[in-house]
Amino acid sequence: MAAAPTSPVSPPTTGPGTAAALATEPRTAPADTGTVTGTGTYTVLTGGRVVLPTGTVDGGRVIVQGGRIVGSAPEGAPTVDLSGHWIVPGFVDMHNHGGGGASFTSGSHEDVLKGVRTHREHGTTTVVASTVTGELDFLARRAGVLSELVEQGDLAGIHFEGPFISPCRKGAHSEALLRHPDPADVLTLVKAARGTARMMTLAAELPGGLESVRLLTDHGVIAALGHTDATYEQTVEAIDAGATVATHLFNAMPPLGHRAPGPIAALLEDERVTVELINDGTHLHPAALGVALRCAGASRVAFITDAMDAAGFGDGTYALGPLEVEVKDGVARVVENGSIAGSTLTLDTAFKRAATIDGLGVEDVVRAISANPARLLGLSDRVGSLEPGKDADAVILDADFTLKGVLHKGAWVVDPRTA
Q1: 212: three-class secondary structure by DSSP
Q2: Residue 96: in which H helix or E strand, if any?
Q3: Which residues contact 68 (CB under 8 A, 6 or more apart)?
Q4: In what order do the strands lie in the sheet with 331-334?
Q5: From CA 351, how far away is CA 361, in angstroms rounded?
Q6: Could you tell me which residues are beta bridge partners of residue 394?
Q7: Which of 25, 141, 271, 277 is the most exposed place for a label (fewest CB within 10 A)?
Q8: Could you state, in order of their start, the residue ranges of all structural domains in the chain?
Q9: How many Å apart are CA 40 and CA 64, to the nearest integer?
Q10: CATH fold of 19-89+384-414, please?
Q11: 71 in a labelled binding site
């Protein structure tokens, strides 16, 4: 069982000028902070249960001007009645390999944008593009391609998953292309990304691993531990060197043992580490999810998709880097060895599962699916919560947590009035 859910409906204590007050108090005068002046029409989302950093407000309001959330609107501003619905921040996916039939590792610009649009339609308004293991030169060239889309604002950054991972825990990565995390090679990829690298997954127990963790940290790139065969002691050493994320906790690492606790215990117990979880019902048993939440707490969990091309597209045969992958009944596996090959998950499904099957409080789900990844990626000044001054990214869910609307920078991707 998961941790006992927190109440998603109790209104928080509010006061003038607080985020909750801005959502509930009708105003005509400009707010003290967060009001955006200038061009852009107003839209007021009304009547819904608005999830704010301070708590949930029944019958709240989210005021949008152009592409931003603001603190006030003029009299007569158009409204969208969302009574009976949840209004939550747009989802932030920090580990995603593609979707809609398109790969972030090998697709053209238009392919990548197709994948982004597919996930956006499922509520993910901020996407980091993850690559899979390949030749170093190829990954460097790929970083150049993806960095252009980051600079255009279509992606939030690049995550390198491999090639610096353990052959013992390679998962859906080509063993022939794996290599030790030589700091010079790590730096090659960081530089190729031209300032857009957000995260790199590596096995820090390999030669050069600790030095590479320190290098990444010095360059402002998240060092994530994953696809690792590290011991408990080696993992602690890597965390002390600067690693702050566990790549899809439990998956592609040694299991928790009573004499050999391995990386899982070290990652769960350290307050400096945020753990990724793939909540699709395939990668994790609900009891494992519950253990992670109880040990790490809602503030240290990030729900991810680890999605591959088939997300939002369907069963069939796909390529994941050089590997052939078969997707059957929504589960992706490497044809050669049967290893799970990422997921076909979208974050609206992860949200609904967490709030219904896993019994998590809605506010905790929002932390895991929006606020925490935004903070980790250094984007919390723009996304991850419904606050004045931030991008107008929001997801509308009905009472059963089915997606009914997606707002991205003030424009409806999925319009709840017609969904």
Answers
A1: helix
A2: strand 91-96
A3: 36, 40, 388, 389, 390, 391, 392, 410
A4: 316-320, 323-328, 331-334
A5: 11
A6: 89, 407
A7: 271
A8: 19-89+384-414, 91-376
A9: 9
A10: Urease, subunit C; domain 1 (2.30.40)
A11: no
227 marked ligand binding residue: yes
How far apart CA 97 and CA 284 sit, in angstroms, is 19
> Per residue, what are the HEC states of 324-390?
EEEEECCEEEECCCCCECCECCCHHHHHHHHHHCCCCCHHHHHHHHHHHHHHHCCCCCCCCCCCCCC
The catalytic residues are 306
Task: Please check whether the two domains, 19-89+384-414 and 91-376, share a CATH topology.
Answer: no
CATH of region 91-376 = 3.20.20.140
| Residue corresponding to tokens 């400096």 | 272
pLDDT band at residue 128 using 50, 70 and 90 as cut-offs = very high
List 223's β-bridge partners, or say none: 200
159 is in an annotated binding site: no
Interatomic CA distance for residues 13 and 297, integer angstroms: 23
DSSP β-ladder status, 245-246 and 42-52: unpaired
Q: What is the pLDDT of residues 151-184, one digit of tens each?
A: 999 999 999 999 999 999 998 899 999 999 999 9
